Every structure is written in structure tokens, then in C-alpha cells.
Amino acid sequence: MSLLSFFAPCPRGLEHLLVKELEQISAEHIKPTNGGVAFAGDTAVMYRANMHSRIASRILLRLGNQGYRNEDDIYKLAARMPWSSYFTPDHTIKIEVTAIKSPLRSLEFITLRIKDAVCDYFRDLMDVRPSVDTVTPDARIYAFLTETEATIYLDTSGEALFKRGWRMDKGRAPLRENLAAGLVMLSGWQPTQPLFDPMCGSGTIIIEAGLMAANVPPGWQRGFAFEKYRTLDKTLWQKVKNDIKIDKTQRALYASDISAHAVNDLARNLTRAGLPFPIAFEQQNALKAMPPAANGILLSNPPYGERIDVVTASEDAAFFKDWADHLKAHYAGWNAYLLTSDRDVPKYMRLSASKKIPLFNGALDCRLFEFKMVAGSARKPRVVADEDDGQ
Ligand SMILES: C[S@@+](CC[C@H](N)C(=O)[O-])C[C@H]1O[C@@H](n2cnc3c(N)ncnc32)[C@H](O)[C@@H]1O
């Protein structure tokens, strides 16, 4: 069987984790770029990538590519694609265009031309055209333009893959599920270790960790665009689903938050997340939260000044100083990982970060800081204030 080509976009900074996931599902010709990974594989690889990738945002099937000079060239490329192999005029469509250094002026006009190409294709073939639905289309068509080349993709995922299907309430500033999964992987957490998020919000980190430990695929509770396409191989898709083996072992996962609202969101999300074991959670102030085990991984994304208007930089500094004193006094043996866009957090905490991993939380340029809490760190007068090295 000939190989199909794909591109999977993902949060910037997590490409190497997506490479590992794709290797595990036997994808071939894996090539990471900024913000995504290109790969090849058969239909089973595409089904598994959609079902199992915790990091990818979508799986795009590459249909064709050519050099272009103007909108007409892109129209002709789009009109040549074998659309009727995948969907019919009864399916609704949406076109999205991304361009880097394209000399063409209007992305809206290119979007319109590609829509015309798909509609004209079906009108010529069957005398009917598909309609556009920009909110819940059956088929999303993507065009990616560089300075000289245009590539057309058909989305196989539908809703973005970080929408796992369990989130009830968005909370105040929830992490995207694929970024949360990436943080858990980057922390090196193993399912046999305790994991604690003391500022859990809606619980994204702890839920993603639980799903990972239980082997519950992220796509377990949702549908995919490829299920609506004419190319669906029901037997193969059923086999991919039958191969899933859930691990029901109880894991030591703990979550808390100062806000009653957040804890309610977490409780509701937990009832829908599909975890095969309960997670311990409570409403409490992180400044007072005692460690739930002798050692383990603390992983959190604390509130950011710029996301919560009322918090000033000096309040942030005071909060992190108090929290660090609490951690130094009680959390010896724990490794703490904090995702924040505030580079001064290590300075506020008077701790030296042993790792600083650059990541993007949406548009926010963040760091995942690693702090190893060692016995006696509370007694040190002032550990070297950390300077950002500008990574
Ligand atoms: C950026 S949000 C975390 C979002 C979470 N990762 C999610 O995906 O939903 C920060 C959280 O810290 C909580 N918080 C702020 N101060 C706190 C404190 N002193 N103790 C515990 N939680 C606190 C807020 O209530 C908020 O839910």
C-alpha cells in the first residue's frame, strides 16, 4: 500500500514529544519543523495518530503541492484535488489559509478562490455544490503558502485534537490539553510517582496525567472528521479501537485550588474524563498545602499577572516568595515544575531553576522552570537569584 503524507501541527516547543508519539505508532519519514511534524504512513497510522496523540493539534492529510505566482495558480491546484474520493456535496466545508512570506496580498481572497475551486469541482461533476459552514464543518480544507509554494491539506481530525470531549467549563485560564500533556511528559513524571497540582484550576494537568497513566487515549470520547469521509475503513477503525487496553491501577494524583469555583469545575470535569480511578482533590490555599506524599512531582501553572488584571507585579513577587518559603520548609524530596510567562519567578522564589524549557501557552512566551527541593533549602539565606539566560 502506498504511503500517505501528513502534517501534524502542535504547540511550539513540543515537537520532539510528538516525534516520539509518531514513532510509537510506526509512522515513517518523520520530520519535525517549527510548530509541527511532517510524517508518512498508511490509513491505520492516521487513525492511530488521531486517537492516540496527546500532543498533536490536528492530523492533516497532504493532498497536493505546487509552485504558485498568483491566486489563479492556487485555484487550479485546489480544483485538481480528488475531493469526491473523500466527501460529497452534502458535506459542509470550511477553508483555512496560513501563509508565511507569501507575496499575495489577501488571505481572504485566496480562501474564497479555494472555496470556488472546490464548489466548481463538484458543480462540474454532479451539478451541485457543497455549502460552507465556518463553525462545525464536516470537512476542513487547509492551504499552506510559503513564498513560492502552495500545499493543500484535508483535515482528518475535525475539532482540534486538544478538545478531548471531557471539558465542561473552561475555567478562568485553562491550559490547552495538549500543552498540559506535554508538561507532564517534560517533567519526566512516571505513573508510579505521586503528582500534585496545588493550583489546578479546572484540572487539565492532573486529568491529562491520569489519562496517560491509565492508557486512556485522548481521542477515546470524541469523533473525528475521517469518520464522515467516504474513505472510512470501518473494519480497520474498529480494530484500532479494539487495540486499546485500559490500565485501571490506582495512581497517586492530587489536585487542589484556592477557588471554590475551580474545584467545582475540576469535580465536573473528573466525572466526564473517563478515568478508571478516583483522584483526590480539595479546596485549599497553596501557601498552606502540605505535601500529599514524602516525595513526588509538583506541576502547576500558577496565575500570571498579565492574565489577572488585579494582580500587580509586587503582589506576584510577594506570593511567590511566601510560596517558596512554604515549599522549602515542607517539600524536600519533591521536584517542582512551574509554567509561567514571568521570567522573574525564580528570583521571587530565591531559588535557582535547574531547567528552563521555552514553551508557548497560546501567544504567551513561557518557561517551564524546574526546581529541585532539597532538605535544608529553607535555611539558606538567599540562593542565587536566577537571571533569565534569554533562551
Ligand atoms: C492559570 S490558573 C491554572 C489553570 C489550570 N492549569 C487549568 O488548566 O485549568 C491558576 C489557578 O491558580 C489558582 N490560585 C491562585 N492563587 C492560589 C493560591 N494561593 N492557592 C491555590 N490556588 C491558587 C487560581 O484559582 C487558578 O485556578
From TrEMBL:
One of its GO terms (molecular function) is rRNA (guanine-N7-)-methyltransferase activity. Keywords: Methyltransferase, RNA-binding, Transferase. SUPFAM superfamilies: S-adenosyl-L-methionine-dependent methyltransferases. It comes from the Bacteria. Signal peptide: none annotated. Residues 45-156 form the THUMP domain. This is RNA methyltransferase. It comes from Formosimonas limnophila.
